[in-house]
Amino acid sequence: MQALVRTEQELVAQLETGNGLQENRDGLRPTSGERVLEATAAAANALLTINDLNEAVKTALKLIGEGLDTDRVAVIENFIHPTLPQRCWKILYEWNSPHTVSQISHTNAAEGTYEDGGIAQWYELLSQGKNLIYPLEEMPEPFRTGQAAIGVKVLHAVPIFVEGQFWGALGFDDCREVKHRGASELALLKTGAACFGSAIQRQRIQQAEKQRTAELAKAHQELQQRDRLLSVVAQVTKKLLENEDIDVAIPTALQAIGEVGSMSRVQLILERQDPITHKLQHHIAYEWVAEGIIPQINHPTMAVIDNDHAECLLKELYAGRSMWCIIDDFPDEIKPKFALLGIKSSGAVPLFMAGNYIGCVAFDDCVYPRHWSQQEIDVLTTAAEGIGAALQRQQLVEHLIAERAKAAEKRVAELSKANTALKNSLDRLATDAELDTFLGHVILEIQHQLGAQRSHLFLYDAASHTLQLHLGSENGQVMPKAQLKNIAPFLESIPADITKAWEIQITTKQPLEFAIWENAHSEHWPEALKWHRQMGHQTAMCIPLMLGSDIALGFLGLAFTKKATLNPEEFELAQALVHQATLAIQLTQLAETAKQAAILKEQEKAANQQIAELVRANESLRGCVNRLADKPDLETFWEHILLEASAQAKSYAAALFLYNETSNTQIMKRYVREGQVLSIKTTPDLEPFRVPVKGNMISFWKEALFRGEAIFFNLDECSHAIHSGVKWHREQGHRSIVRVPLILGSRPLGFIGLCFREPRTSLPPNIELIMALAQQATLAIHLTHLAEKSRQTAILEERNRMAREIHDTLAQAFTGVIIQLGAASRIVPHQLTEVQTHITQARDLAREGLAEARRSVNALRPQILETNNLCKAFKRLAEQMSVSVEKQIICQVVGEIYPLAVDIENNLLRIGQEALTNAIKYAIASEIKIELVYEPKQFILRVKDNGKGFETDSLPTTKGFGLMGIKERCDRMTAQLTIQSLPSQGTEITISINRE
Which residues contact 604 (CB under 8 A, 6 or more apart)? Predict the structure, then answer.
């Protein structure tokens, strides 16, 4: 989302900057490219500022369609076919000019596949960032037939990329006449196309984020309630199993559950047989009610309910399914009775003991109807299971007392044994939070109590329907699967349906006993049977781990080396211990869910922080754009970018370097320190950077630069061999440096360096914002270069026009005068000497005017520079002039050649032509020398002759166009003009240009 907003703003800034540069061309009629730029900028602004996406897209399409003078503009999105391996396209939005057929309303023309349409190659071209231009006759079939049906004569398309991925295309159809769009127009339209894709994707992400936020809020609320329930249920379960008096433990548990769940009434309802009528009834054994709620336990007609009156509800409970209903969903025969108790909604969890239904735990809401979440139902089910476990334990105790009345001492010992095992497990659960440690203790306790030699705990994975070995005992210790020996059959996951043994366990919910040697069970897995025989076992037993009546968590497998049949008390004890293990597993899983909820909460918090960062980033970027709009000066904009980047990164200093690829040098353009802009020319510390720095800028960070990545390095870890500026940085007190590249496509323009007085271990946390600022600087540099190039093109076009005008008017007129004067000279008798003299003078003046006109035409048309650099142009000029005059003209180049701006090179060539012409015409020199001096700080052009010279005080700068033209060109370039001359000692004209 942050990247999309940043991309849209950068595109809008780029288009608005380009549009603003075009608007500065006052007096010139807008070109088609300027109209496209203006329309694209307006469309991009509409997409960014209009809140309603549909309205924004329609407005933007209309602006582009009308600005482009086309007939149909469409936004096309790519997608993958849901069932076939084909790439598809679909029109999302469309604008049509009047009387143009709508394509989106034609089902066959509004979407299709690239392969079936015969345009698979178009997909490849667009995905590579290339544009499409196809007249109707060049389109492949069958796509051409469909386009012809909707009146298309020529199709243009530019690709849309969103976050670097090929998203779709922006299509333009001309239906009235064939139009050809230039590369510059399509380049501008490609920028606008990216705005459409970003706007649509941004809207989708915003909608997804809103939906996700609402879901997270709801889930967070449910998880908070579930967490509170989970905490209380864990305490209640522990107390139920610790407290031997269920008459105290159960009411306390009901109250704790009711209060934390904000319920109106919580009851334990048990099924019993009426001693007189022998009918089955449900009676309320224990009840807790909130303040102001009618107790049901004392109600004259509802304290005891005959099963015959609630048969519709009991069917579900008997089947082991819990019920959660609001009053309106209850059957009509029971609804009035529940209404008497003020019940708005009610839930019930069935209780089973030894596989038999014994009653339920009921939860009533009398204030408002409640819709329970599945997480809350799971927790309440666990709580009810805890109450059932307490009843089961109580029943086990009572059963043991009744059965062993005559053997009191033995009975006490058995009970003590069971209680000790349970207490040991509970103590371990209370003191050790590790699930596997607790399970290991329970496994060893069961193994000890039942006299088993080995035990293995298998957990059931419902998703894959497999059983997986989790823990096992070996030599009196419980270890994870990876540490166990001789368990080859159990290393891999075992399909739960490999035999019917697993189905039998979860259906009967009872332990399953297997004989190993004689009368082996038919459903015993052969591989397991073989393993038991190899280990010398006589009997095996599987005890299922069941949560409620229908949730299976796994089973505990026991192996015995002696044939023995366990008595019922041992079975019950084993089941009680296994049930403890089951509860521990479930509670741990619920705790893990709570943990994940906390993680979600933290992620939500992090997302909010990211949104805040995004807002801050937007404000920073908007400030830079506004600064450029208010004061469109590139160097001032650089200063603002540097100050903003330094402030965001909290750096001590920052510098902007530009890279000259031709001369392989880098030069510092701006420098800030502690929030202040320092002058590079006057600040002593910056003296090394007043001239371009030699050397390869990317030698240390080449790979990162061309990937467009920022890097950091600590100066304490650098040597002079790695970077020549290390010594200077250390003198300034810098400890670490962050470099952010300025990349245009694959061409490096320079970098922003951030200097810190402390070592770094990573890039700044808001490096993406700093990278965005760097991209703004890159765009500003590039757009300025483009604007300057456009200005020079306009100047050259105007010069060519003037040259044509001079050639077609003055030159031809002078030629005609010369011809007429020649004819007049032949007609006039030679005796008229005075007339012939005037004719001759007039003809000489006309020839001189024709020569001047031709020189003006040549001066206005810089053909030499069109195919050569400045040095070659001067050498060619010297060669051309030497042929026509008997003078020695020498051209010399001093220093390493580097390019200058186009307009500067053009002005220098014209100055050289003028100076050379003056020397030939007036100096009466035998030698003329042209020098081009390339120095790091300045460039010097020197034209020197050994002619007659003149007094410089009498320079005719106000007369004629020669020296005055040279002076005007120097002023235009901010260059320094020096003219040195003395009579009989020649003349030297020097033009120097400061490069800083």
Answer: 213, 216, 220
